[in-house]
From TrEMBL:
SMART domains linked: REC
PROSITE patterns per record: RESPONSE_REGULATORY (PS50110)
Residues modified to 4-aspartylphosphate: 58
Protein name, per record: Response regulator
Record key words, sorted: Phosphoprotein
Natural source organism: Rhizobium fredii (Sinorhizobium fredii)
Sequence ranges assigned to domain Response regulatory in this UniProt record: 8-118
GO terms of biological process kind: phosphorelay signal transduction system
Length: 121
């Protein structure tokens, strides 16, 4: 990522209105949005095919937990922001240290968190 290439944010969110708001907030802040993706299978496939700098992941996609995707992204050293209604203590221990926003959150919280993770934008 350079000044000529804005940060690309991979978005996984199954709630249409939430995904739309995340996308709008990111675009307004100067980010490029990859997604949003709404299921685990499409998210995993897209994560392997797309290029991005950071990922925002809703942990529960209509009852399907995205833990396999989180593990894969962490193995690839992609910064991951978890978006969830779960308390930190409800997460697997290996994910408790990851940045997290508790739903509901507002756009300024999202942008602030991403800027701490990928400060180049």
């Amino acid at each position: 990522m350079t000044a000529a290439q804005p940060c690309r944010v991979f978005v996984v969110e199954d709630e249409f209105l939430v995904a739309l708001q995340i996308e709008d907030d990111l675009i307004a802040a100067g980010y490029l949005v990859v997604g949003p993706f709404t299921s685990l299978s499409t998210s995993i496939a897209a994560s392997r095919a797309e290029t991005f700098d950071v990922a925002t992941l809703d942990l529960n996609l209509r009852g399907e937990l995205v833990y396999p995707l989180v593990d894969e992204l962490l193995e690839r050293q992609v910064p991951v922001l978890l978006l969830t209604g779960y308390a930190g203590s409800d997460l697997p221990e290996r994910f408790r240290c990851l940045p997290r926003l508790t739903k509901p959150f507002d756009g300024s919280e999202l942008i602030s968190k991403i800027r701490t993770m990928v400060p180049a934008v």
